[in-house]
Design goal:
8 helices; 71% helix; 0% strand
Length: 178
C-alpha cells in the first residue's frame, strides 16, 4: 500500500507546474532586462523568477480557500524540480546538485520573506531595499528600484484580484495594468 502512495500524483501537481511555468514566462519578459533594469544573467533571471514565484506563493497562501497552502506548495515543488533539472542540463555534477538546490532554496526563502514582510507592512521603502539588495549586486541603475517596486506592487494587487478557481485550474495572469 505504501508503494502506491509514492507513485500517486499529488492533487495540485499539474496546476502547480502550470502556475510556475506562467511565473517563469512572466519573469522572462524582455522589458524587465537591460542596462536600465535587471542584468540578463543567471542571477538576474533567478531573481526575477523568485520575485514572480514569491508573489504567486504569497497570493495562494493568503486565500481563505483551504486548498491555498497545498497550491502554494505545488508551485514551490515545481520551482525546485525545475531548478534541479536546469542545473543538471547545465552540466552541474550530481554530487553538488543537492547543495546548489539547497542554496537556491535558501535564497528564494529569504527573498520571499523580505518581499512578504514589506508588502504586509505596506512599507515601500523596505520593499525597495529588498529588491535593491537581492537583484543588483552593485549599484542599481537610476530609477530601476522604484520601477521594480511599482511592478511588484502592481503584480501583487493583480494576483490578489484573481479568483482562486483560476489558480486551481492552473491559470494565472501576470499582466499588470498599465
Amino acid at each position: 500500500m505504501a508503494l502506491f502512495g509514492l507513485l500517486r500524483r499529488r492533487t495540485h501537481e499539474r496546476a502547480g507546474f502550470a502556475l510556475y511555468t506562467a511565473a517563469v514566462s512572466a519573469a522572462r519578459e524582455p522589458a524587465l532586462f537591460g542596462d536600465d533594469a535587471v542584468p540578463d544573467t543567471l542571477e538576474g533571471r533567478f531573481d526575477l523568477i523568485a520575485l514572480h514565484a514569491a508573489l504567486l506563493v504569497r497570493r495562494l497562501h493568503r486565500d481563505p480557500d483551504p486548498r491555498g497552502p497545498a497550491m502554494a506548495q505545488a508551485v514551490f515543488d515545481a520551482m525546485f524540480a525545475d531548478m534541479d533539472l536546469n542545473l543538471r542540463e547545465m552540466g552541474v555534477g550530481d554530487m553538488s546538485i543537492a547543495k546548489r538546490v539547497r542554496r537556491m532554496w535558501e535564497d528564494f526563502h529569504g527573498r520571499a520573506l523580505a518581499y512578504e514582510g514589506a508588502l504586509d507592512a505596506g512599507d515601500r521603502v523596505a520593499l525597495e531595499a529588498a529588491l535593491a539588495r537581492n537583484i543588483w549586486s552593485g549599484e542599481p541603475p537610476e530609477g530601476a528600484v522604484s520601477r521594480f517596486a511599482d511592478h511588484a506592487l502592481a503584480l501583487d494587487a493583480a494576483l490578489a484580484a484573481q479568483p482562486f478557481g483560476e489558480f486551481v485550474a492552473g491559470r494565472v495572469n501576470f499582466r499588470v495594468p498599465a
